[in-house]
Amino acid sequence: MSSKLALRRGAKPRPTSREATFSGPRQARRQPMPASLVRLRRWAIGLGATIFTLIVLWIAGVPQQFAWDTGEALGRAGFAVRHVEITGVNRMARLPVYAAALDQPSNAMLLVDLGAVRARLLKHSWVADARVSRQYPDRLAIHIVERVPAGLWQQNGIINLIDGSGVPLQRVDANAWPDLPLVVGPDANRNVAGLLALLDAAPALKASMSDAVWIGGRRWDIRFRSGETLALPEGEEAARRALVLFARLDGAQGLLNRGFVRFDMRIPDQMTVRVSKQPGAAAEPADKAVTI
Hints:
Rossmann fold; 6 helices; 3-stranded mixed β-sheet; 9-stranded mixed β-sheet; Ubiquitin-like (UB roll)
């Protein structure tokens, strides 16, 4: 007789031997996100929304207008440019400095573009450098570093004052600057520093020199007030040796003012001399007005 399994009404069936006896859930529950990660995610979402909002406002011009209105309000309250203090100006005119400082869409201190003021000043030929700063409540301070005149440059009949690097400063009358060397010819201004170093090696000839002509972009011809021309070789060292030797010979034998026209020292250790048509007569004085 087969046995019968009696079940009570409402009772759960007992598991058979083939059924698992695991009483827990069949799938693991999802663990909650740590609080720190939740805060980080919220912060990232908030930051992204803020950046997006700022970009939209910037495109619409809201921050710029707010900054402008704030600057204007402070200007009306007394923070506006009423004084411009200029230092470092010795030779150049002050009017261009004032013009560069006051060329502003607003005179409110906060709205003055210091970088733009400096850029305008640097366009002036005399200005090597410039510093611009605010001094609250109402003063703009400008310090100019001027270029130092070092020579005169004649090109196409026009004479310009130049600094040691050859930058033209302004048109001048050569007679107004008698102590500065005059250089003549294309790109002669760019080589004035080399000429000054050359003359420092033979200072006794400085007072006698009328001008120096830059020949072929390679070398100098020195012209003296008494009319003679000294042709120097190419190269700084070779030119220096030749000029020093000429200064010694002139000091010992008096080469100038003896009727010679040209001294050619382009060949090392040699000097070729050309005399005037009338030996013993003084050479024609050099003329600064010659156009080259």
